[in-house]
């Protein structure tokens, strides 16, 4: 596939994710972490305009000078911006205007990509592809949050599945103690946070081939897991109490039966599906109730070639920190990952919301420990 074809395919997919939406669904921001779908569509477009067209396309005319304020996410280098909590208060630019903005930038990009590209532009372009794919995952999970917190429980797509065909026979994989290589060492794209490749010593451990299922998580609920402080970190226990948490996000107990909001609508909990939409705190408490632990991100990276993964983002025990020799790129792009390396946990794998070929075995996702709106899951280590 040429770079232009890849560009167009990725850009089109973001719009396809939004096809089932009604106009009003594009606009709301029910919690700070969930951005309005139209904001994602505008922001990913702004990314190509700001980091490729403005600096490198000599005769490019900016679509609208005010959009930098509206669609800049967190780049201090690029100037002031609307505060994150206010993204859902922007009725303008409207959805149609944002689709026009996308079309304008796409046309300029296609013209620009017809030229020979230097290495710097090529790298920014591939970063832009990966950036938009990250937002495609967020689009889907944010849409789920928007619809799933509506009392009408609207269906996103009828029969939309939240499990994949990934199968693992139950069982454990033994990993011997030793020094292992961690981090990206290929020749393709990786994020800067996957570098540098370095050595880590691991003690021996056994890791489950399968993710914890809804049936298994129900046992934790029935055993009073949410009511016993012994399984929880102090911070996690405070979170459970102050937010009245008693089940995974999107679960509803109706007439004694557990239902689960899915992109296919409100359905009885699928007992065989991997549990999802749980916080790091809940993952830790579950493992602790089982007398086990979560893998570190290094355990996971070493073991993951021995099982199929990709249904759920898997919480690890690791803090999101820089690898040895990590360096930020100069300028705004240096703000992409490094400045978030505090108070977050690493997740490994991918989820059913992740675009194909976006993740890899060294990929590091990261979220604050209380967050649950991604397709998160649990894999145990003993
Ligand atoms: Fe972004």
UniProtKB/TrEMBL annotation:
Q: Which residues form the Sulfatase-modifying factor enzyme-like domain?
A: 169-305
What InterPro entries has UniProt attached to this entry? CTDL_fold (IPR016187), DinB-like (IPR024775), EgtB (IPR017806), Sulfatase_Mod_Factor_Kinase (IPR051043), SUMF_dom (IPR005532), SUMF_sf (IPR042095)
Name its GO BP terms in alphabetical order: ergothioneine biosynthetic process
In Pfam terms, one family for this protein is: DinB_2
Pathway given in the UniProt record: Amino-acid biosynthesis; ergothioneine biosynthesis
DinB-like domain boundaries: 9-137
Is Oxidoreductase tagged as a keyword?
yes
- Look up keyword RNA-binding and say if it applies: no
Q: Which top-rank group of organisms is this from?
A: Bacteria
Entry keywords, A to Z: Iron, Oxidoreductase
> Known Gene3D superfamilies for this protein?
paralog of FGE (formylglycine-generating enzyme)
UniProt cross-references to PANTHER family, sorted A to Z: HERCYNINE OXYGENASE, SULFATASE MODIFYING FACTOR 1, 2
**NCBIfam families, sorted:** egtB_TIGR03440 (TIGR03440)
Protein name as annotated:
Ergothioneine biosynthesis protein EgtB
Species this chain originates from: Pedobacter suwonensis
